[in-house]
Amino acid sequence: MPNPFAHLYVHIPFxxxxxAYCAFYSEPAEERRAERFLAALEREIEAVAGRLAPQTxxxxxxxxxxxxxxxxxxxxxxxRACIPNLExxxxxxxxxxxxxxxxxxxxxxxxxxxxxxxxxxxxxGAQALDDALLERLGRVHTVAMIHETVETLRTAGFENLNxxxxxxxxxxxxxxxxxxxxxxxxxxxxxxxxxxxxYEDDTPLLRRLEEEGAARTDEExxxxxxxxxxxxxxxxxxAQYEVSNFALPxxxxxxxxxxxxxxxxxxxxxxxxxxxxxxxxxxxxxxDAYIQRIEHxxxxxxxxxxxxxxxxxxELAAFALRMNEGIAAAAFERQTGFxxxxxxxxxxxxxxxxxxxxxxxxxxxxxARGRLIADRVAESFIIxxxxxxxxxxxxxxx
Length: 398
Ligand code: SF4
Prior knowledge:
Blueprint: E1 5-12, E2 14-15, E3 27-28, H1 31-49, E4 52-61, H2 69-82, H3 86-89, E5 96-101, H4 108-116, E6 121-127, H5 131-137, H6 143-155, E7 161-167, H7 174-186, E8 191-196, H8 204-212, H9 219-235, E9 239-242, E10 245-247, H10 254-260, E11 266-268, E12 273-276, E13 279-283, H11 287-295, E14 301-306, H12 309-320, E15 327-328, H13 329-336, H14 340-353, E16 357-359, E17 363-366, H15 368-372, H16 374-379, E18 388-390
Parallel strand pairs: 1-4, 1-11, 2-3, 4-5, 5-6, 6-7, 7-8
Antiparallel strand pairs: 8-10, 9-10, 12-13, 13-14, 14-18, 15-17, 16-17
Helix pairs in contact: 1-2, 1-11, 2-4, 7-9
This protein binds iron/sulfur cluster.
């Protein structure tokens, strides 16, 4: 029996409405459609359950709480029934089960149900604490609804909450961003995730900016916002542990830490990806195609590839560099079989000279400046090699 997997991601593709900046795959939540989707998802759960011994489960989307209370109950109950020993695991202190929510979709009934069935962490897509900015982002909720959601979750017994925010929104000032962060911390979350707004092609946000002739937030303002983010979160007792993530002591997201440390995981649902037995796979994005494949007894995989050891090492370095702990050279060599300066001697020298990384032969880390352009620094570590391609679902067994 191969090793079981400790991390499971479940993707729910529905949202109440499309946000103006969003390029993720999502569809409007319709009850009858969701029923058929859930039946397919249940079959995928059954197909992978035997290989799971999860320490973390993350139900993301889309907006998982756009499902009705009955549908959420059906999904969570099925997970508990199919995954060996999940019933007993959910009560263990180090088990992390996260569900993402959007403030417009969480009722107290749903919150109580999630808690009762074992969910112990909720990630709330707040995004801004200003109604005009929320409107600009095309969010379907107000600031008051964010406060109500946090209150509802606390009343339901949740003690581990993340709030997601976006900064560098056109029209947002540095002072406004600072105020948002202080008000967010006053809501006493255990974790904050903050992302610079990215402008995706062909989104309503971009079209509106073009129509209005409005400018995107410039680089200088964005950097000032990021620096303010570091200062205000530190004052609030939050430690940065990844480029975009901040936590109170012991409240880092263990599910995401596994991604950044290059660990394997199973992903199910349309457009979910996974890393299993060295194979990286991605499910079909379209939920009709997903449902049809499963109803016809086929795996819903769109593509699967096995990276070469060098390419895998490159991917691992690019992810791990995002964490404040950086990359320990000895652990990296144990995990990949490569020494860091064997693969990237020139890059290490160049990036050090540019003041973007610190490298003392034992540990590699981004500098504060490097963290500001982490994606660009990480690209230097990507290795493109010929890959082995398959069309099977690695977690189904083959
Ligand atoms: S809630 Fe999230 S996934 Fe859904 S449309 Fe908005 S940004 Fe996209």
